[in-house]
Design goal:
Length: about 60
């Protein structure tokens, strides 16, 4: 449960950061690269949350 809470906190933090970023920025710019990196991190965190929940359901 601690792991899920930690991941949810990181996810919320990244979501707040992404809201301040320009989502229309080109990937050739620094802003676009940062937005893409944040998006990738969000997807990975969501995958970890889902995997942790599946493991908890199996137990």
């Amino acid at each position: 449960m601690k792991k899920i809470n930690h991941l949810m906190t990181r996810k919320a933090s990244l979501m707040r950061a992404m809201q301040t970023m320009d989502n229309d920025a080109d990937f050739d710019t620094e802003d676009g690269r940062r937005y893409a990196q944040a998006l990738v991190k969000l997807v990975l965190i969501q995958m970890q949350i889902e995997e942790t929940e599946k493991e908890a359901a199996r137990i």
